[in-house]
Specification:
- 2 copies of one chain form a homodimer.
- With 389 residues, chain A is of the alpha/beta class.
- Chain A has 2 domains: 254 residues, Alpha/Beta hydrolase fold, catalytic domain (Rossmann fold, 3-Layer(aba) Sandwich); 103 residues, Orthogonal Bundle (Rna Polymerase Sigma Factor, Chain: A).
- Chain A has 10 helices and 18 strands.
- An 8-stranded mixed sheet of chain A has the order 1-4-10-5-13-14-17-18, sandwiched between helices.
- In chain A, α9 links the parallel β17 and β18.
- In chain A, α1 crosses α2, α3 runs antiparallel to α4 and α4 packs across α6.
- The first copy, chain A, starts with 10 loop residues before the first strand and ends with a helix.
- The interface between A and B is large, with 53 and 53 residues.
């Protein structure tokens, strides 16, 4: 039976050995914040790495004692009896380098200056993250993961794992992802970055010293992102053209509205939703991290080193794959997942593919469509048998 | 044979009679900038009104003597021998109220204060524009248009004409349009407006007094818009993931690049394209006008007064319709045009519908796909026969 994973505690791991990065520079010592669920078995064969997407973190499942209402970002997927069952698997979440939830990133103090890295933090890539995650695996004594799994940008990391460390990955679960961004994907990222870079409070990335954050730019960036996470159909069902129903009056009362306000204030419910999402995000997310992670997305293109040939990039992989897409995801549409599947089949790699007819757009990978969850559950059952978990 | 319409000259028309607006207020006197092509025949039966979309104007066709390189926005459609043939039709373009190309709008001086209207300019709607355009028709002595035609927001005006002044519209050409915005359409507008409204140079809409314009916000707004005008496929063909090929060096030379720069500067060609479009737009377009016109788009919903029933809204129309959509237009997708067609057919109104399989997304309505242009040409041939043009 499914149950919640309960109270969890993150840990910070320090890595003293310098990390060579794809941009040619080297990161001296760094910290990674990590969370684990379940127990590593004696054979160390039941470990699963869960990679996070743009705005998420190491906090995959469970709750913190000081915030018992907020669960980890994939709590519906990871826990006792859940599709990725922590009664059988040892699950690791790692906050990626450059993120803003404890791991070393632009907000961290640069030991050479004693000031936050800010704009000087290196532009890390998916491949850099994978190398950093491999050291976490080393620290846990995990030679080979039963599975590496992720959705969206997390799926890119899983794919990169299978290419960079083929011998260390048993299964690779790539969900709602793509082998590389399209021009339109890059365009959305570019507009989001432009909003941040042109915010006068950005100060070239060194806003920490000015005691401000580029809140306006971050807010617009997040609003743009949110449009691409939802399907047109889902937005229509959720909000339609409904006017925001009640308007708060000065005395605290509210009045139901019917007609237009003829103003630029919130008029339609979808506006209220986007503004709320934007405001909330600007409260907790670091703008330099947003820039950096969207660029890592842009740059991801494992076929690039193989003359643009994804088949060749995946030729030497040894993992078995599960690739999942969602019919209404227009950010990373099913056709993009099918590119991965095709490239794997070119070399007769073992791959299962499912296209889930869920209405929720890209966000579907975070939701609980039963067909999707049952599929992942069945897939992990098979892995459990293989690895004796 | 097709030829260019040559040098044209806009004219400004003053209207002294106050215009009641949909928001309940009244606009005192106002000016409209207008351009005409061809000759009104003696029967005054050959007039065609061409309505413009967000960023266009009265300058539909031809060139100005002081800028002979730049043609009007629909110059490929309107001219001697062109689909809308100015040898046969008298064509009128009107810059809409609230726009920034000569007609009274937020940049204009409010006669009651002697200062620019700025934020106090009323939020005019599609229906307000149609009422103002009707007075232009009156001034030309045109009782009935052979056709009212427009693409996108211009198509909404054509549709509104057929509903508000059924006896004055012979044919209604609604191209790449929609009976109302979807939640996603509104969401994109809202993000664009948020970028402008939160620009510190916006000053609540009264930036003229501060000698600045909210350039950063306008730039981001236009970049967002541009993504929705192009299809994903078209962007992929135009830009793919190509790196900006050459980088200018300090000495004026250029160097071909192959690898990533690992920075937030322009890296991919699509970024260069968007930045260029954004920068150019911010040079010439007024931010208050952008806000106002996107809101007019949001508010357009002729079915709203009929309990949301578009069929009822169109029941009493008498025009014949040509509705055209483009297969790859995801801003106003073919399904939206089919809603219009269906509502017209509910009342056995005469409507021709074509879905053009062009790759260019929403922008296709401004381009010269031969199937599209031949269709419009044939349609106007029929109109010419009817009205003796």
């Amino acid at each position: 039976m499914e149950s919640s994973i309960g109270i969890v505690t993150p840990q910070s791991m320090h890595f003293a050995e310098p990390l060579p990065l794809q941009n040619g520079s080297t990161l001296a010592g760094y910290d990674l914040t990590v969370e684990t669920y379940g127990e590593l078995n004696a054979a160390r064969s039941n470990a699963v790495l869960v990679c996070h997407a743009l705005n998420a973190s190491h906090h995959v499942a469970g709750r913190y004692s000081d915030d018992p209402k907020t669960a980890g970002w994939w709590d519906n997927m990871v826990g006792p009896g859940k599709p990725l069952d922590t009664n059988r698997f040892f699950v690791i979440g790692v906050n990626n380098l450059g993120s803003c939830f404890g791991s070393t990133g632009p907000m961290s103090l640069d030991p050479t200056t004693g000031k936050p890295y800010g704009a000087s933090f290196p532009l890390v890539t998916v491949e850099d993250w994978v190398n950093a995650q491999a050291r976490v695996a080393d620290a846990f004594g995990i030679e080979r993961f039963a599975a590496v799994m992720g959705g969206s940008l997390g799926g890119m990391q899983a794919m990169a794992w299978s290419i960079m460390y083929p011998e260390r990955v048993g299964h690779c679960l790539v969900i709602a992802s793509t082998p590389k961004l399209s021009a339109q994907n890059i365009a959305f990222n570019e507009v989001a970055r432009s909003a941040i870079l042109s915010d006068p409070d950005f100060h070239g990335g060194d806003y920490y010293a000015h005691g401000v954050v580029p809140r306006r730019g971050l807010r617009v960036a997040r609003m743009i992102g949110h449009i691409t996470y939802l399907s047109d159909e889902d937005m229509a069902v959720k909000f339609g053209r409904s006017l925001q129903r009640a308007e708060a009056l000065a005395d605290g009362a509210a009045v139901e509205r019917d007609g237009y306000k003829f103003s630029f204030d919130v008029e339609f419910e979808v506006e209220s939703y986007l503004r709320y999402q934007g405001d909330k995000f600007a409260e907790y997310f670091d703008a330099n991290t947003y820039l950096l992670i969207t660029r890592a997305l842009d740059y991801f293109d494992p076929a690039r080193a193989y003359g643009g040939d994804l088949s060749r990039a995946l030729a030497h992989t040894t993992a078995k794959y599960l690739v999942v897409s969602f019919a209404t995801d227009w950010r990373f549409a099913p056709a993009r997942s099918r590119e991965i599947v095709k490239a794997l089949l070119d070399h007769r790699h073992q791959v299962s593919y499912a296209e889930i007819d869920a209405p929720h757009g890209h966000d579907a990978f975070l939701l609980t469509d039963p067909r999707y969850h049952n599929l992942v559950r069945a897939y992990y059952d098979r892995i459990a048998t293989e690895v004796g978990a």
